[in-house]
Please model this.
Amino acid sequence: MDDLERFDQTDYKHWVEDRVRFSDLDPLGHVNNKAVSEYFENARALLFMEVTPNWPKRDDLFVLAHLAIDYRRELHFPSPLKIGTQVLSFGRTSMKMASAVFRDSDGIAYCESVSVLINQKTRKPVEISHDLRKILMVYGTT
Model:
């Protein structure tokens, strides 16, 4: 997938707003990679809260299993941000998502993640129900 596809804002179905904080900066004066990963984490958490009420205090919840981030542009303080997320695919117990951070229309970073649904008590993966898949596909690519 090329950058034109990764940063096509029409592909993203779930949006959150954030902002660069002074504490996000590193000694070089630009946003540290850890802060960018936190923007993605907050976007995932807000999506999970929308689709699964009482998240993260449910019997079953999604946990992060894989994360890959491509950084394309620097960010500086202050900057308003938008983070878009879309569901790419499902496994039996997992879901693959893509997200992108934007400053205005400028694509800053792209992320692909895999989250696994686990039972909080057993800490073992559980199958994603048909009903939950249906809810999550509202944020899907098709």
Q: What stands out?
A: The CA atoms of residues 41 and 133 lie 20 Å apart. Helices lie at 3-6, 33-51, 130-136. The mean pLDDT is 94. Strands lie at 14-19, 60-71, 80-90, 94-103, 106-119.
